[in-house]
Amino acid sequence: MRTVAVALALVSATIGATAALSAEDPLMKEAQGLFQPIPNKPPVVKDVVATPALVELGKALYFDPRLSESHNISCNTCHQIGLGGVDMLPVSIGHKSQKGTRNAPTVLNSVFNTAQFWDGRAADLKEQAGGPIQNPVEMAITHQHAIEMLRGIPGYKPLFEAAFPGDKDPVTIQNVEKAIAVFEATLITPNAPFDKFLRGDGNALTAEQKAGLRLFIDQGCASCHNGINVGGGMYAPFGVVEKPGADILPPTDKGRFQVTKTADDEYVFKVPTLRNIELTPPYFHTGKAWDLKQAVGVMATSQLGEHLSDDQISKITAFLHSLTGEQPMVTYPILPPSTATTPQPEM
Ligand code: HEC
Ligand code: HEC
């Protein structure tokens, strides 16, 4: 009797597996046409050769709060590597506790975005890195003073010399930007269940996640959120079909319009990456949605004019959870000490 039961269970398991395989083949093929897996090795930053010395320098600069006027704020303050590359605040808090106007996007996998910032105003990570240093509500230090600071910390000189062996005077803002960009390019999160699925492992996603992926494609989410970062590759208006409420999309921030001054670009934002999205609440450039399910519901109505059922929203959200990859393991750097002649903080 027991044997029969086991045999029956085996037969039905086999049938189940076959059915799952034939049904998921087209889904996998379709997904492979729309998305690419995160590579296991950091990509090359344009025009910069990533030597270990350069990555080490970039890491030190990324974590060094003395790159801010108050000596209190580093890149990691708002883009914490242990918190999915964000600060988990609706909007960031910078110099003299000033609130910024936008939610901090993750730095993880940002190297794969085709432009940086919610409005795409920086072309790449090198161009981006200089921005927050001198932004008055972020680190609030002029580039000139940042360089005086680094020159005033004697231990940085050998680090810059090792990172830029050809340069006579390597402590420059351009080199700071290069080093930070090269370090940021190492902050990638490979081997998410979805990456394994894209590489051919049909068992990497649960049945619910596969149903969610099917909806994500069929409902049209993937028309904007696609490519290696499941986003990060194009711009779109927030509210294509229906404008979300003023709490989520206040009229003051016109997005890409502020960069291009073209009427068509009003309320246009970069389509953000959905990689590691479960780790990075709150959502949207305003940071107004704490619940990923709520964010999915808002997207469906505002971008697609679809009112999804709770069940559909749960499935899509389950799929989004499959986008969480291996988080970068970064050893906290020991920073070169200040001396009596290092410029002092301005509080
Ligand atoms: C006070 C908080 C704060 C600090 C400090 C800060 N950032 Fe940001 N970062 C932000 C916010 C907010 C945005 C989005 C701004 C926007 O889109 O207008 C952003 C955007 C970015 C982006 C673009 C990501 C994307 O997907 O568009 C990158 C990359 C980045 N920051 C890296 C850095 C680096 C490197 C440093 C240090 C030199 C740094 N940030 C310092 C808050 C901060
Ligand atoms: C027409 C293009 C478009 C479509 C279609 C679209 N999105 Fe978006 N998505 C965006 C844009 C643009 C944003 C940024 C909105 C903002 O905050 O300004 C965004 C933001 C998001 C966010 C928040 C990300 C974050 O880091 O804060 C999630 C989650 C999301 N989308 C999921 C989805 C899902 C799920 C669907 C399908 C139901 C979908 N999107 C359909 C363009 C689109």
Automatic annotation (TrEMBL):
Residues reported in the UniProt entry to bind heme c 2: 221, 224-225, 299
Record text on cofactor binding: Binds 2 heme groups.
One of the record's GO cellular component terms: periplasmic space
SUPFAM superfamilies membership: Cytochrome c
Alphabetic keyword roster: Heme, Iron, Metal-binding, Oxidoreductase, Periplasm, Peroxidase, Signal
PTM comment, free text: Binds 2 heme groups per subunit.
InterPro entries: Cyt_c-like_dom, Cyt_c-like_dom_sf, Cytochrome_c_Peroxidase/MauG, Di-haem_cyt_c_peroxidsae, MauG/Cytc_peroxidase
Cofactor: heme
GO MF terms held by the record: cytochrome-c peroxidase activity; electron transfer activity; heme binding; metal ion binding
Annotated residues for binding of heme c 1: 75, 78-79, 95
Signal peptide: 1-19
Cytochrome c domain: residues covered: 53-184, 207-324
Coiled coil: none
Protein location: Periplasm
Protein name: Cytochrome-c peroxidase
Source organism per UniProt: Defluviicoccus vanus
